[in-house]
Amino acid sequence: GEGFQRRVRGKQWYQRRVRGLFRRVMALPRVLALLVVQLCGVSLALKPVVLVPGALASHIEAKLDKKTTPHWYCSKKSDWFTLWLSIEYILGPALNCWADNFKLEFEDGTFRNTDGVQTRVPGFGKSRTLDYSDNHHLLSYYKPLVDALLKVEGAVEDVTVRSAPFDYRYSAPSDVNTEFQSRLKGLIEETVLKNGGRKVVLISHSLGGPTTSTFLHSMTQDWRDSNIDSWVSISGVFGGALKVVKAMVSHGVMDQLPNIISDRFVHRRVARTIQGNYYMLPRRPVYTGSDVLVRTPNINYTVDNLEQMFVDMGVTNGPEMLGTVRNSSYVGDPGVPVHCFNGKDIKTTSSYYYTKQKDFPDEIPTDVWGDGDGTVPRRSLKVCHGWQSTCSVQEYSGEKLGEHGKILDNPAFIQHIVDIVTDVKKTSCADKCSSTPVDNRTL
Fold first, then answer.
1. 373 part of the active site
2. Which of 4, 156, 202, 364 has the fewest CB atoms in 10 Å of its CB?
3. Strands 366-372 and 346-353
4. From CA 289, how far away is CA 305, in angstroms rounded?
5. Which H or E run contains 275?
6. Nearest residue to 205 via CA among 344, 50, 348
């Protein structure tokens, strides 16, 4: 008996030593990362940042090897070039070539690129990838925010501020989006290591909101606790946006340009093939069957009969494409501390009225106005206000400070983000984080 007990105690001592050694070995990467960070001068007071963009903000490159084209002047073969956004490529006759390369095909329940078109999203993990949304650096995007973050003492480019661009044409649960979520997870883990174990502040804008929410819901709570300091959601399209309805019904995404420069019907044809647009349509529970999205003399369309709207527009496979994103967007509590920013008190479309049934869906509709940030209705923006994990809510009134895109240039907003990342005002409030995220899928 006594010999047996000694053997048991010896075995337990050995197991404890092995477990202790294992923990020390597993801690080595973070210890080494901490040493490298200190030697390189990165401030441990600065939380690392990963930026997730909205729709149309990521650059998409393409390489062509096509058998046919819609017009003689469109290239069949090419090396890698900027498909989005190169402004001259969406103007005049070139628009037809762009449309044929940018659109998605849909068959057997799956979205894919057009035959002979390869695409990629450049700059993953870099600091400056999302400074501009176009390749000529005319349309500023995250640049003012990145400039401010990299000016913080100890900030190191491509180490403390990193970008996670993605192909917004695809959404969850597509294979392309699943691959992005896997890369995002790896980028966050790598960023934590490169910054001496400091957890990441995720920053998202617009479509990046539901994209980030869906990503976080796919992670375990242990992973979130180990890797995410907090999430800054800016102008999140959590309940969808009416502008997407207009883009798919009558206008496409470039509705501010006259037809002679950039044909809205070509843009509309492309918009109806993009899975990400179906993902951003108004959705339950933010909208109900009593909320009219599109009104015509003969019928009103709501979230209850969007499938019928596509059929009535002649998009016969629209209901099936819409079905691919059903129950794919999570808008419940994400299980990490959240800082929610958005604009308000700006005229924002709440529904559209097409006055002549015979001209539907080609007619230019009349806007019915409500409140929001000029692009996203306030009810959609406010979803994150109600989460248990939300630490702070900041709304900016008026177009100059709170408009959907201009909020990224707002000096007060930028300073608020710098304060969060440096924790100057002790804004982490991690104790408010819900330990159990709510599985609240929409659509």
1. yes
2. 4
3. antiparallel
4. 8
5. helix 275-279
6. 50
pLDDT in tens, 267-301: 999 999 999 999 999 999 999 999 999 999 999 99
Confidence (pLDDT) at 206:
98
Residue 261's pLDDT is 81
Rg of the Cα atoms in the chain: 24
Two tokens at 187? Answer: 């980028």
Q: Which two tokens stand for residue 322?
A: 């819409």
Q: What is the pLDDT of residue 348?
A: 98
Interior CA angle at 344 toward 341 and 350, to 5°?
Answer: 115
For residues 95 and 144, is the Cβ–Cβ distance under 8 A? no
pLDDT band at 432 (very low <50, low <70, confident <90, very high): low
- The model's pLDDT over 1-48, given as tens digits with 9 standing for 90+, comes to 555 455 545 555 545 654 555 445 444 444 444 444 444 445 557 899
How far, CA to CA in Å, does 336 sit from each of 68, 286, 306? 49, 22, 33
Q: Give the residue carrying structure tokens 């997870």.
A: 185
Residue 281 vs residues 101, 199, 293: alpha-carbon distances, Å: 24, 33, 10
The number of beta carbons lying within 10 Å of the beta carbon of residue 93 is 10
E-strand ranges in 114-160 read 117-120
Catalytic residue (one of 204, 206, 213, 262): 206
Token pair, residue 164, equals 């996670």
C-beta atoms surrounding 13 within 10 Å: 10
Distance CA 80, CA 60 (A): 10
Whether 206 sits among the annotated catalytic residues: the reply is yes
* 11 vs 141, higher pLDDT: 141
Residue pair 279/328 in contact by the 8 Å Cβ criterion: yes
- Contact (Cβ atoms closer than 8 angstroms) between residue 238 and residue 205: no
| Cα–Cα dist 259/243, whole Å | 18
**Is-contact 399 374, C-beta < 8 A?**
yes
The DSSP call for residue 235 is S
Query: Which residue has tokens 């349309």?
Result: 139
Tokens, residue 76: 């069949």
Using the structure block, give the residue that is written with the tokens 């599985």.
Answer: 439
| From 131, 350, 373, 389, the catalytic residue | 373
Take residue 422 and report the two structure tokens written for it.
């440096």
Cα separation values, 128 from 43, 103, 147, 161, 370, Å: 20, 27, 9, 9, 35
Q: Which helix (H) or strand (E) holds 301?
A: strand 300-301
Q: What are phi and psi of 272, to 5 degrees?
A: -75, -10
Q: What is the pTM of this model?
A: 0.88
Residue 160 CB neighbour total at 10 angstroms: 24
